[in-house]
Amino acid sequence: MAVLVVAGVVSCWGTGEAAADPSPAGTLYVNHDGACSDTGTGSASMPFCTVQAAADVVLPGQTVRLESPDDLPYVESVTLTRSGTEDAPITFTGAALAPSGSPPILTPKGSAPALTLKAVHDVRIQSLGIGYPGADAVAVTGSTGITLDRLSFRRPVPSTGGTGTAIGVDGASSGVTVSRNWIPDGYAYGVRAQSGASQVTVTTNVVTTPRRGGIVMTGTSGAAVTSNTVTAPCATGISLDGASSGTVENNVVASASAKQTDSCPAPTAPLYFVSAQSADQVTSDYNAAANGSGTSARPRPEYAWADAPYTTAVSLHDATGQGAHDIDGLNLPSTTAPPEHSALIDSADAHAPGELTTDVDGAPLVDDPLVADTGTGSTARPDRGAIERQDSIIIPSDDMPSPSRGVAPVVTSVKTDDATTSWGKPIATYSVDFGDGSAPVTQAPGAPITHTYATPGVYSPAVTVTDADGSSRTVRSPAVDAGTTAAPATSLSGALVTTADGKVDAGDALFTVPQPANAWEVAYRVLAFGDGDQENLADGPRKIEHQYPAAGSYTATLTQTDLLGRTTTARVTVHAADAFLPVAARYDAERTIPAHGVLKLSAATVHADSDGVDAARLRIVTSGAKASGTLTLYTDGTTRPGTSTVSFGAGRTVSNEATVKVTPTGVIDLYNSSTGPVTVNVATLGLQSHAQFGRTYHPAAPIRLLDTRSGTGGHTGAVAGGHSVTLTVSGAHGVPADADAVVLNVVATTTKGSGSLTVSPDSTVNPGVSGPYWTTGQTASAQIVVPMAPLINGKVVFRNNSKSSAHLIADVVGWYGPTATGTTFQPVSPVRILNTRTGTGGKIAELGAHATLKLKVTGAHGVPANGVSAVDLNLTVPSPTGSGYLVAYADGTTRPDVHTADYTSGQPAAGAALVKVGTDGEIDLYNAGSTAIDVNTDLLGDYILNTVE
């Protein structure tokens, strides 16, 4: 049989030994959790918020009941100035929520005591916690008929240096009983009565490591110091000085070796001290000096009587006649019950003044059949000290409420008939406190107790078994879970992490998990991020930040399991993506690639060797080609895709932009499909990172910025060779002043000689990069990402590098900026989504002159079906037989007058295009030429809304 041995004593804080509570009409309630009022009547439904409010109005015969369901202390220094009567005392009591529970705590505010009884009489303070005083904790001044019972003290605040007194009685007080209190270390004095006090009874208290005195009666008449346990005092444990009178009986003072320090001033002082002025008026007997055992030297004197020291009980008795039944030669370093067969058991004087019928924990005084009785008393002979050795009761672990969970109402049953005791005593009763506020139920062993939990909740039942002598042990069973009909709902939301100025870490998600309904019913919650990582969530509302390892779509799942094992889930889709990091444009590498050769470029070469970089935006210029061909840009280590980045003819200089996937430690490849070598020049315009705060993209309906043919932009007439046009872009044309880059469609037409166009931000040393390139009479276009210097002047310089004039056209098609409402980038492996010669993309015929082709770009190839604002494409016209240009634009919108890719008869052409997507997920391709053409479209990535859905 599985059994559970419980060695602790039931703590009955909140019940005490006082007479029964008065009727509800005589109870004032204090409860600062929830609705309360200090101006009301202190009813159970509207209690006082503070203890002082009740103290100010309490009447004789009333009880002030402190409650603290939230376990938060009452932080106030309370002064009571109202009195009871002998027949109708005033009572202050705490209400522990369950057996062995902690009482409400009164923590002082500032240096004043937590509680001061000032010139009052007939008052009982019981079952309270006293928390962390700055000096004295409880002060009795000028008062009579006072009982301080079962107070649980906390250590003083460290800054006080052990100067305070836990319980102080001034010289004008009398008839004070200090009983069954736990006083920890950190105080100068445990209990201290000042000169002039009378009839002070200090009984059944535990005082630990007092620094200047455990229990000190100074000039106190009629003192009774009985059945206390004082351990490891750094001064005298029990002291009667200054012409005190009274009795000292049944106490245990246990020494501990210590060095003298500021906090332990007298570690070798006697354990018991009776001054010369008090010696003739004090009787001492049945005490124990636990000063070490064996023949080794004792660390300190056991007694000082009439100022003379005595090292043993025998020497004290031989010299003074006191301590006839005292014992020593013990080791008792802790504050637990005496070990079995200890000399302390059943050896005290049952008739000592102030001796109680229960110990410090409320356990009864019982006779231990395993120890010979050496004390006085006809039935139960008390043990020495404050803690009574009890019968050890063994309670089988299955003697608990069963079933322990279910949907309310839950009917449980308990039956105890096989508990045993170490003393062989018969079991008299067992009692069950079901923990739901109902009265405990007591039965004889073997008689079942049935209980119904009607209200959903988590309950903590306790089973208490009592033997025939009154020893009892309590086992707290596992919780009983009475669940609601449906499992608690759960909720999950998220957003990408942004900075105050609008920059976004597009791979970093911030999840919000609210407090669940019926939170008490939730056992645990696990948030799986969808990338293999997960986190167990603590109670309460939570915000959890998670950095994803790569761009992509992830489903984050919150799984909530309740106490009955039922689960509910909530999911969000995280589009972890990339934010744009502009790079000052400059040529980074110039190489010649042999026929069918591959040029490998490291991430460092293209400035991509930093956190979380997934893609780079490059401009590639070809020159010196010996034969026509194409360049294909792709990630090293992957299969070369059937796409093209730049199409070039023999002897021609051409350029284009493209985005390529890359890792911070990886390499990218450029493949030359030509039968001859070609020289390439590569420049980085920007990076895309999922782990850095960057900029979002805002596609726009094209806005004409410059047209020298009509004077748009303020310049009329062709731009002469070697001359420039400077225009304001940021802060105008729908582009904000803090844009970090703009995307322009630029065109050179009516060209009088070959040349190229350089587009660069104004006021920079960097000359930018060139493109497009043209021959005499050719119309050439390019889409260019121009990194800006935000907030400098917002201007862009267009420079005609030809020796001859050309008309220039420019349109704004988008911009990057620190605005979290923009879109973020998801790179894909390059894929051809349209080839009119093979039928890829659904069309297997040339695109006719002045005809439009609709192309679906969402819902495939890694592009989400929804939320896509733009796609990153490369358009190729492989073998045109005439001249013209392509226009790419969002389906469902008016076709703009822009050149996406210009082509010339007999010359292959390619053009990069960040194209806004229609609401139907389609784009339109319009052939503005006079002849039909084949068209290839390669997909490089997409821009999605910066959201978590």
Structural account:
- The protein has 949 residues and is mainly beta.
- Among the domains are: 393-483, Sandwich (Immunoglobulin-like), CATH 2.60.40.10; 493-576, Immunoglobulins (Immunoglobulin-like), CATH 2.60.40; 579-694, Sandwich (Jelly Rolls), CATH 2.60.120.340; 696-817, Jelly Rolls, CATH 2.60.120; 823-945, Sandwich (Jelly Rolls).
- The chain has two helices and 73 strands.
- Strands 2, 3, 4, 6, 7, 9, 11, 13, 16, 19, 22 and 25 form a twelve-stranded parallel β-sheet that branches.
- The two termini are 54 Å apart.
- The relative contact order is 0.06.
- The model is unreliable at 1-24 (pLDDT under 50).
Which secondary structure elements does this structure contain, and how are they paired or packed?
Layout: E1 3-6, E2 27-31, H1 51-55, E3 63-67, E4 74-75, E5 78-80, E6 90-94, E7 105-107, E8 115-118, E9 121-130, E10 138-141, E11 144-153, E12 165-169, E13 174-179, E14 182-183, E15 189-193, E16 198-203, E17 206-208, E18 213-218, E19 223-226, E20 229-231, E21 238-241, E22 246-249, E23 252-254, E24 272-274, E25 282-285, E26 288-290, E27 303-305, E28 308-310, H2 313-320, E29 327-328, E30 393-396, E31 405-407, E32 410-414, E33 420-421, E34 427-433, E35 441-443, E36 449-453, E37 457-459, E38 462-467, E39 472-476, E40 480-483, E41 493-498, E42 504-513, E43 522-528, E44 534-537, E45 542-547, E46 552-562, E47 567-576, E48 579-582, E49 587-593, E50 598-602, E51 613-623, E52 629-635, E53 646-648, E54 654-661, E55 667-672, E56 678-689, E57 693-694, E58 696-707, E59 724-728, E60 741-749, E61 755-761, E62 769-774, E63 780-787, E64 795-800, E65 807-817, E66 823-835, E67 852-856, E68 868-877, E69 884-890, E70 901-903, E71 909-916, E72 922-927, E73 936-945
Parallel strand pairs: 2-3, 3-6, 4-7, 5-8, 6-9, 7-9, 8-10, 9-11, 10-12, 11-13, 12-15, 13-16, 14-17, 15-18, 16-19, 17-20, 18-21, 19-22, 20-23, 21-24, 22-25, 23-26, 24-27, 26-29, 31-40
Antiparallel strand pairs: 1-30, 27-28, 30-33, 32-36, 34-35, 34-38, 37-40, 38-39, 41-42, 42-45, 42-57, 43-44, 43-46, 46-47, 48-56, 49-56, 50-55, 51-54, 51-56, 52-53, 52-55, 58-65, 59-64, 60-63, 60-65, 61-62, 61-64, 66-73, 67-72, 68-71, 68-73, 69-70, 69-72
